[in-house]
């Protein structure tokens, strides 16, 4: 078994900070980060906690970048045109410079003040960040590692309030920023002679958006109307130079224009030459290269950039519009502007969004997306898709406004995720949440494709698959419900004869019997899945039933309880006495080995015990308390080393071959143990997010005071500015309270294919899969086994020998080329030449090759010959080949579903064509 598992994706949330999981825990308030489209407009970068999700809208897939910020992410920015650099800033102003294509961190940096907005220049040479009441412009570093890649270009001041929004001109020479002081200010990026920054006023509320109009559109409009004077019908006199728009929280949008007085031609040329000489002198003494970057062959062309045209210009307000007549009921929260298409997207606090055309501010589209605030909006470069993020509900929506349809609509569980279950084929993952809902996730794409109609009135504590089309869920509301995955409805409800809360559930392998254990009274209820009748009630425990599981082969049921015992019940024998396994502490989890000969139990002391099912003897013990310990919570009075008593495993799962055990619990670690040697093979830390509680092993001494730790989080520092409302009060108090979310793992599970495993934590569903690209595991490698020898055997027609050599080298590309170069009629002979030691390896390669290959019939012939030749041996040794066979079965079933859909569509199309032909012949 290989252990190079890496985090493939984070399901359960596509945007925002995942809600807390567990009773009585509230997540800290967060405004949410921004959403960014890539330059081609086909991918969306969405921050989730301290990670970044990359959603491919064309192939409908999701992946998580292999980087983590120190805390929850506040802002991200992607370099334009090439998408080579990604800058990530968290809530504590720690920044990371990332090579986006490779997913490698190039540099770490900390800004000295809170970053509320960040944006690259259109040419990608610089990026601007807010710095309190000012703006800092930094030179964009290269993609190679440097000792100090961050070089400050310049700092711009002049605003009275904190900067909340900024924008660049289309030629990257002018910077526009707005703040909480209801004003906007215009600077030139490089020093320009005779230019004085302008302050734009006229709003009554803080600004949420400032946007420059595309310069080419401005010049085209200037040349279209009144070429001599440049007057476009505005109340302002003079030649139009630039235009921008400012949007405030109260829904007011102002159109601003900069105009210059028209001079005579000779005077204009003379002033141009004087300005050219003056700017060269300013650039020389200031060290700026702005004049050299735009230098042309003659003096007139040197003044073509927008920064020089703003010299001696006057800004004025030409129009003012309001998005809503009632600004008290809804306020503007976020804006996004496409300068090339002159489209403005506005998100409101009541869940509405509006699409407007500028400069006329004509409403094109208005729609209500959610009942919560739209925290961020974004528009892709082609202006076809609009992205919306709602931080409170963790919703991410991609809307195509021309066809008025959703491209993507994702949301997680409202109050966190609690349990999970894999389908028998490993394609679907079912999760239950604290909000009482059950969601179905595609393990390939990472998207939630259906949320079952809410039928539970309390948290879902367990989910299980009865078969590939029926999923059952147990809840604290005292019911177990069966859901049909074809019609997506609840078709059966199982209840107890007395009110109780179910905290565990199990389904037998045939899918005919379902059992649920309750917290109080301490008993196990047994129902028939088909009839829905309560057939039996198992009593004998004196504590809550924490875990239930059926024997993989026989019909016996094992139940674990807080009373420190595990009982094995025979459901098909009346008046049978259950066998009891005594433990020294409360039992919180259990699991059967896949062959059913061994059972593992976990206690609250971090002890894993392995029992022989036949004779009830204890085989071995693993003390995992030292392995799982770590993490000091914010209000702990002792260090992490001295607080290991509260760390224990709450969920365990065997691997497909039964040699290893996966264990997770109320800690930040998930451990994999080798059972026969009783050793820890690998330990995974599910999160490094310092916004969660229990991540750090040691707290910073500067944050420790006499009364305890001092919170250094600033999640909501820029949400509202509450002023003291009591006479003499030095500290404002808005009445809100928050507590950190503790990092925990509620449940772990291996995929039936064995290629991945998942865990439910406070951040969502973590899916870890094998990274095949990093594996080099040759078998029986000799000097004669080389890629050149493989190609030689292929040319000579020795396909069996070529396949054996490629399997020895264990390179996917080489094995795939050999398989596809084998003639169709020779497949049977090649399969017969394969030894038993290579069957599992060949099955894995066939499943991986068939996943995206168009040669479906060709690979099905390989599968058929493999089963006909070696099927009996694989059946006798099913434990050895179970993982590879399930992977092959999953791929075959997936291709069958795709082909079935295509064939059905073609059948109906052919029937339509045939009926139309008959009508024409009849006429």
Write the layout of secondary structure elements.
Blueprint: E1 5-11, E2 36-37, E3 43-48, E4 51-56, E5 61-64, E6 73-78, E7 85-90, E8 94-99, E9 104-110, E10 118-120, E11 126-131, E12 134-139, E13 151-156, E14 163-168, E15 174-179, E16 184-188, E17 198-200, E18 207-212, H1 215-224, E19 239-248, E20 252-260, H2 265-286, H3 290-293, H4 306-309, E21 314-322, E22 332-338, E23 343-348, E24 352-357, E25 362-368, E26 376-379, E27 385-390, E28 395-400, E29 405-411, E30 417-422, E31 428-433, E32 438-442, E33 448-451, E34 460-467, E35 470-475, E36 479-484, E37 489-495, E38 502-507, E39 513-518, E40 523-528, E41 534-539, E42 545-550, E43 556-561, E44 565-570, E45 579-582, E46 587-592, E47 598-603, E48 607-612, E49 618-623, H5 625-628, E50 649-654, E51 660-665, E52 669-674, E53 679-685, E54 704-705, E55 708-709, E56 745-750, E57 756-761, E58 764-770, H6 787-795, H7 799-809, H8 812-821, H9 827-832, H10 839-850, H11 856-876, H12 878-922
Antiparallel strand pairs: 1-58, 2-3, 3-4, 4-5, 6-7, 7-8, 8-9, 10-11, 11-12, 12-13, 14-15, 15-16, 16-17, 18-19, 19-20, 20-21, 22-23, 23-24, 24-25, 26-27, 27-28, 28-29, 30-31, 31-32, 32-33, 34-35, 35-36, 36-37, 38-39, 39-40, 40-41, 42-43, 43-44, 44-45, 46-47, 47-48, 48-49, 50-51, 51-52, 52-53, ...
